[in-house]
């Protein structure tokens, strides 16, 4: 029986023009193209130029998503959710400025901070608002500017992260429509909050008299320890969301996982028992773009004509927090802009 649901109506992306290859990084870091490709799958990433912040990328992607959804009147959007771990400033949130620059007027606008799971968390937030009738259309943007947070001397993070933004328009529709979001599973384990962290941001470091060291502004990640949690949590969350939707794994046409590491994506596929051919990968081109990674991967696969109308998609993500989140939807045949 059909029920109200959020339906994907438009998709847009933006990455900064500057491409940084693995070889570029070997000039300043003790690393190699071979190590980065073998251990992560990443071949290049895009980094923002100095002066470019997350809202700049978000606005570009937002414009394109609105165009893709053929939304002309700004008043048609009733809520803007920006998922990011790299907001322009701690106060205010980034979303209101993005809304203003997109011409969305006095729309409700908020940031969601859930690390690399941010986009799926933001989709769930937007979907709940639509189903509850708080809005007819919602713009969801995942956007990150990691370059200023990467320690140029830390080869364990500088080779991994990239900048970019991806946005979707969701509209209020029904579960039987192509594009309907049919279930979510979200979770967190804050006992492991220190595995991926920017130590110098926020009230915790500022609550002490200790002067902040310049290195405290950089992102730190214990990748080796995070790895097995990522595989396990995404596998569990995927199974949970499939159960919610009543789908069997063999009905899933495409798995679009958070693009952190090819080895994680293929370990996830093994754990789930999914043919690796059904796993969408995009990190080779953009690295780990955190909250932007799933919409960027969706748009890339759609642009390559990988999805057919009505295909069943499983989205699954994992990140700092620790957080994880999964969603299932059918493909609406949207052309990304
Ligand atoms: N170039 C060359 N060597 C490197 C390197 C680099 N860029 N980065 C690390 N190394 C070295 C390490 O120093 C270590 O050397 P040692 O054995 O002499 O100590 C060795 O390579 C192995 O390091 P390790 O950290 O175990 O590598 P890994 O295989 O776990 O790969 C990650 C590192 C970060 C790619 C991987 O752990 C990962 O993807 N983790 C999960 C990330 C994630 O999902 N995050 C959450 C979302 S943001």
Automatic annotation (TrEMBL):
Instruction: State the active site.
Output: 116, 258, 288
Domain Beta-ketoacyl-[acyl-carrier-protein] synthase III N-terminal: from-to ranges: 110-190
- Catalyses which reaction? malonyl-[ACP] + acetyl-CoA + H(+) = 3-oxobutanoyl-[ACP] + CO2 + CoA
* First-level EC class: transferase
From which domain of life does this come?
Bacteria
Listed A to Z, the keywords are: Acyltransferase, Cytoplasm, Fatty acid biosynthesis, Fatty acid metabolism, Lipid biosynthesis, Lipid metabolism, Multifunctional enzyme, Transferase
Which Pfam family, any one, appears in the UniProt record? ACP_syn_III
Q: Care to name a GO molecular-function term for this sequence? A: beta-ketoacyl-acyl-carrier-protein synthase III activity
Ranges for the Beta-ketoacyl-[acyl-carrier-protein] synthase III C-terminal domain?
242-331
Quick check: keyword rRNA processing in the entry? no
Kindly give the SUPFAM superfamilies that the UniProt entry links to this protein: Thiolase-like
Return the InterPro entries for the record: ACP_syn_III_C, ACP_syn_III_N, FabH, Thiolase-like
Compartment list: Cytoplasm
Keyword ATP-binding recorded: no
Pathway of action: Lipid metabolism; fatty acid biosynthesis
The EC number(s) given in the record are: 2.3.1.180
Q: Specify where the region named ACP-binding lies, as residue ranges.
A: 259-263
Domain comment from the record reads as follows:
The last Arg residue of the ACP-binding site is essential for the weak association between ACP/AcpP and FabH.
Question: What is the similarity comment for this entry?
Answer: Belongs to the thiolase-like superfamily. FabH family.
Q: Which NCBIfam families match?
A: fabH, PRK09352.1
Subunit info here reads: Homodimer.
What the protein does comes down to:
Catalyzes the condensation reaction of fatty acid synthesis by the addition to an acyl acceptor of two carbons from malonyl-ACP. Catalyzes the first condensation reaction which initiates fatty acid synthesis and may therefore play a role in governing the total rate of fatty acid production. Possesses both acetoacetyl-ACP synthase and acetyl transacylase activities. Its substrate specificity determines the biosynthesis of branched-chain and/or straight-chain of fatty acids.
The name this protein carries in UniProt is Beta-ketoacyl-[acyl-carrier-protein] synthase III
Tell me the gene name: fabH
